[in-house]
Amino acid sequence: MARSTLSVKRRTLAAVAGGAALAIVLTACGGSDDGGGEGDTEAAPVDCAAYEQYGDLEGKTVTVYTTIVDTEADQQQQSYEPFEECTGATIEYEGSKEFEAQLPVRIQSGSAPDIAYIPQPGFLKSLVQDYPDAILPVGDAASENVDTYYTESWRDYGTVDGTLYATPLGANVKSFVWYSPSMFEEAGYEIPTTWDELVALSDQIVEDNPEGDVKPWCAGIGSGEATGWPATDWMEDVVLRTAGPEVYDQWVNHEIPFNDPQIADALASVGSVLKNENYVNGGIGDVSSIATTEFTEGGYPIVDGLCYMHRQASFYQANWSTLDPDLKVAEDGDVFAFYFPGESADAEKPLLGGGEFVVSFADRPEVQAFQAYLTSPEWSNAKATATPQGWLSANKELDKSLLQSPIDQLSYELLTDDSYVFRFDGSDMMPAAVGAGSFWTEMTEWIASNKSDTAVLDAIEASWPTS
Fold first, then answer.
1. Domain 176-312+431-463 belongs to what architecture?
2. Cβ count within 10 A of residue 170
3. How do residues 232-248 score in pLDDT, each as one tens digit?
């Protein structure tokens, strides 16, 4: 089975993010610090009132299997500490780079974990279809939390054939354009609020730099075996803007063909930027260089003043600190991001994003309790506290003040603003043969060898599974 988009991206970002997570120091529920040696850090007691609903789970163990490794794995485990302290349960965590391949093997062998974090709804659907008796419907407590703390769309993404099988975990926002606030200010440029303004700004940058040494855009879609996914994100964002959310849903679910004229129009709009020699690839090369430039480095020319804009998700912030730990990511900093604008600044605005989902393979009380905890504001707040940057939740009761990064705070504002219409990453919703296969490879060929729009869309349509 092909690896999911999100897990490949997550592993890449984890490798480049660097930096230690902030430690959460916890004492036993309601306990006090007995004191200690010089240099000890006094820990705040945990308020266990919100955890009484889970009962006494002393001596119980819940196993968790995920794609999340490295630094974020440490942050995940820190976020479980209040639950462990207050209930007495033990959470055994295992992150794996071979998650998508190994989870079905474990299910088949009867050794499935208690809990697994699924990195895409498409993978969830295939697991439910292939192993209908293995993945359990979400328990009552977790289901009620989803209804209380999340929008209906997040419930829908965890639902297969009318049954809720997965609850939301983390989230990200992809509809961002990274830029240098100081470069914009020095040039007198305003942040565009519509697609037409974005195009006009790109044209103005070309006019203001007649020698062509500075370009409006820089980009990179290289990502090892997942090369091409950043171009699919471009495509998804533009389909939302040119065709609208309803057509987007039809496209993702193959209710209209991949080569539908509305999708062809969207690809042409993407091409008006990514395949425009006057617009790209600032500081890197020509159009074809986008295909060979690692996505992790695609935005770097902004710092050198060689390009003005780079479309990439909220999680790209980790790459700036990798380039230079002293770079400030903020509205008044070295780099920041603005919302990738739609056709109108006033109408409902489309918002592309992604996230992970929690499924269970056991109905023991401690397993159901832990899944309910992962849907609660308490967990979201604990995870935000443990994570310096690059994580947020769509939980409506997340304490925004705990988000430590300005871009995470902005992302949360957009996710919880009713004027933005959220849609999940399309390739993560499609069958793996398309979403993690032909869509990636054909978009790469579209850029690398100038394959025509028609040929690309026809090839992807032909690859869609017939059953």
1. 3-Layer(aba) Sandwich (3.40)
2. 25
3. 999 999 999 999 999 99
